[in-house]
Amino acid sequence: MSISVWLGRILFALVWGALLANLVWPFPGKGFALFLILLFVLLAIHLLQLLMFVTVYGDKIKWQRGDYLQVIVFGVIGWLAVLQKQPRQNTD
Questions:
Q1: Closest Cα to residue 51, out of 77, 81, 71, 70?
Q2: Distance between CA atoms of 21 and 71, rounded to whole angstroms?
Q3: What pLDDT digit, counting tens, does each position of 56-75 carry?
Q4: Which of 22, 48, 60, 83 has minimal CB crowding within 10 Å?
């Protein structure tokens, strides 16, 4: 699963790069508006995911400072990375 997390991070880095490049160098025509809307939708969805994860699993997982930002930037991929860092619990 570690490889899939890194591939997902690379994919999201490319998506964020394209969306933020639109702010610096606006795309011609209606592309600027489309990418601006997509930026706000992606940010809203990732914030909603963070709210859901913290509400449901906030007391079961050791959260570190960077984990919140990781979920905001990478979404579910960031969540999987947070889960991978957690120590294994014995169910004996």
A1: 71
A2: 21
A3: 887 888 888 788 888 888 88
A4: 60
